[in-house]
Specification:
Layout (H helix, E strand, L loop, with lengths): L2 E7 L2 E7 L3 H19 L5 H58 L2
Antiparallel strand pairs: 1-2
Length: about 100
């Protein structure tokens, strides 16, 4: 279902249509508005502020992607380590069982 919401970014109204709910679209628009206003406080025009805000957000996006990839690698390493420890534990349990069986004879 398409949702429609009117938002204000840098004193201009925009009508957004998306499958996301209105609250989410308003949140995104508020974020963009905040980023643009931060840049415009330095006397930069709306169009240039939009480009600079887009560049800053793209930078954040790519850094987030890299951080996510690093976390996935770290989690993969932890899972491999956990598997190795699980294998060691299983082997130790087999050895304990074997020793207990020999001790009862």
């Amino acid at each position: 279902m398409q949702n429609k919401v009117t938002v204000t970014i840098a004193d201009r109204e925009y009508t957004l249509v998306a499958t996301e709910d209105a609250a989410y679209m308003e949140k995104v628009a508020k974020y963009v508005d905040q980023k643009m206003r931060e840049i415009m406080e330095n006397g930069i025009s709306g169009t240039d502020a939009a480009v600079l805000a887009a560049l800053n957000m793209a930078d954040d996006y790519f850094k987030g992607q890299e951080a996510g990839e690093a976390l996935r690698g770290q989690i993969k390493g932890y899972l491999e380590e956990a598997k190795a420890l699980e294998d060691q534990l299983s082997e130790a349990k087999r050895e304990i069982f074997k020793l207990q069986t020999q001790g009862k004879k």
